[in-house]
Write a structure and sequence with these properties.
CATH class of the largest domain: Mainly Alpha
Order of helices and strands: HHHHHHHHHHHHHHEE
GO molecular function, one term: 4 iron, 4 sulfur cluster binding
Helix content: 40-55%
InterPro entries: DNA_glycosylase (IPR011257), Endonuclease-III-like_CS2 (IPR004036), Endonuclease3_FeS-loop_motif (IPR003651), HhH-GPD_domain (IPR003265), HhH_base_excis_C (IPR023170), HhH_motif (IPR000445), MIG/MutY (IPR044298)
Structural class: mainly alpha
Shape: globular
Keywords: 4Fe-4S, DNA damage, DNA repair, Glycosidase, Hydrolase, Iron, Iron-sulfur, Metal-binding
CATH superfamily of the largest domain: Hypothetical protein, domain 2
Strand order of the largest sheet: 1-2
EC number: 3.2.2.31
Largest sheet: 2 strands, antiparallel
Number of strands: 2
Family: Belongs to the Nth/MutY family.
Number of domains: 3
DNA sequence: AATTCGGGGTG
DNA sequence: CACCCAGAATT
């Protein structure tokens, strides 16, 4: 195991105490459900885009029971353009699971959290730490980058999460519940605000003296060649996105011919079938498309 | 281990 | 215009 300077965790926690962003899901009046909702919305979606949607969402559906009772069409419209709308379906499924399995109370143990729809390794750990102040190993894209640089001494982590990274992350987490929760929030914040992917602000980093990447002379990313940027133009995802945008803004069921702008044949039909299969759309008896009730 | 799944801000 | 964002589920 790599030798980690003992001061690293404390330095990041101290830094965080002075600069932590004032996010609504960090407010004293937040609920565990609010934290869970924020974590699902934040999966692959930046904070600035999530914040306004989260506020409206929590105002409208404050508890799991509220969301569990909401029509799917309302949920998908409220999700808006956060992207990956299947997350909205899973979040509604998650609300129903919390109501049915846990009496409407968000569970605080790893097993029960992981069993909820849309809750994976990261989200379960994050909810434990941020909603309940419990020790857990919280590793998101920010934490991966911070430990890759500060400890391992490389520019960026490997494209896929490795067992070595998981072990290193676990070794960094303080034993104490409160300290572990602080480290989780602080290490993520460091990656989000200073140790960023593009242009890291090393000059003001609390770890600038001990950072292994800096001490190694800022070696370049070793797997730059393997990071193929996800294509977008002409993909099913683009076509699906256009269809969903059309259905969200429609007041009544949409005839297929009015969706022709979304993409060429046979791609459009494939995407429409996929959306119906995914539960993101349905057809009425006239074959028109609409958001599911 | 590799793919699929949105959308938009930004350097 | 390529790159990146508090990942999860599926194969």
């Amino acid at each position: 195991m790599q030798q980690v300077p003992g001061q690293v965790v404390a330095q990041v926690i101290d830094w965080f105490a002075g600069v932590a962003r004032d996010l609504p899901w960090r407010a004293p009046d937040r609920t565990p459900w609010g934290v869970l909702v924020s974590e699902v919305m934040l999966q692959q979606t930046p904070v600035v885009r999530v914040e306004p949607v989260w506020r409206e969402w929590m105002d409208r559906w404050p508890t799991p029971a509220d969301l569990a009772a909401a029509p799917t069409a309302d949920v998908l419209r409220a999700w808006g353009r956060l992207g990956y709308p299947r997350r909205a379906l899973r979040l509604a499924d998650c609300a129903r699971a919390v109501v049915e399995r846990h009496d409407g109370v968000v569970p605080d143990d790893e097993e029960a959290l992981r069993a909820l729809p849309g809750v994976g390794e990261y989200t379960a750990a994050a909810v434990r730490a941020f909603a309940f102040g419990r020790r857990s190993v919280v590793v998101d894209t920010n934490v991966r980058r911070v430990q890759a640089r500060a400890v391992t001494g490389v520019a960026l982590p490997a494209p896929t999460y490795t067992a070595a990274e998981r072990r290193l992350a676990a070794s960094l987490v303080p034993d104490d519940d409160a300290d572990a929760a602080r480290w989780a929030a602080a290490s993520m914040e460091l990656g989000a605000l200073l140790c960023t992917a593009r242009v890291p602000r090393c000059g003001t980093c609390p770890l600038r003296e001990s950072c292994a990447w800096r001490l190694a002379g800022f070696p370049p990313d070793a797997h730059a060649d393997k990071r193929r940027t996800q294509s977008w133009e002409g993909t099913d995802r683009q076509v699906r996105g256009r269809v969903m945008a059309a259905l969200r803004s429609a007041d009544e069921p949409v005839p297929r011919v009015l969706l022709a702008d979304a993409g060429p044949q046979p791609q459009l039909d494939r995407c429409l079938a996929g959306l119906v299969e995914d539960g993101l759309a349905e057809t009425d008896d006239a074959g028109r498309y609409l958001l599911p009730a």
